[in-house]
Design goal:
This protein is an all-alpha fold. It has 2 domains: about 15-45; about 45-105, no CATH class. Helix content is about 60%, strand content about 0%. It is built from 5 helices and no strands. It has helices spanning about 5-10, 15-30, 30-45, 45-65, 70-80. It is elongated. About 0% of the residues are buried.
Length: about 110
């Protein structure tokens, strides 16, 4: 029986992309599922991608006249995480990148 996490996050790929994923996984000696997990983890872990997400969340919260924590809590609830984690007790703003702490390139 699959656990909640597996049922909650299924991905449907176009056939050509699935074939590429299968072949890519094969060349790395892993299944297509493990290859997809590795790709997703790499993308989600990227500092540049996370900075962009943080900026977008701050902008959306400002547009909606809410806090970033409220916005994140709503997004996570709408994605079915309220049964897995106590969303209301976390200060979600601690997950955000502090742009002022990032040195600017000159």
């Amino acid at each position: 029986m699959a656990d909640k996490r597996d049922r909650r996050f299924s991905v449907n790929l176009p056939l050509v992309k699935e074939i590429r994923l299968i072949l890519w996984g094969h060349t790395r000696g892993v299944s297509k599922t493990r290859m997809a997990e590795a790709i997703l983890i790499d993308r989600v872990s990227s500092d540049g991608n996370w900075r962009e997400v943080c900026q977008d969340l701050k902008q959306e919260a400002a547009i909606n006249h809410s806090t970033v924590s409220e916005l994140i809590a709503d997004i996570l609830k709408n994605n079915g995480l309220k049964d897995v984690l106590d969303i209301e007790t976390v200060d979600w703003e601690t997950f955000l990148v502090d742009e002022s702490a990032i040195p600017t390139e000159e």
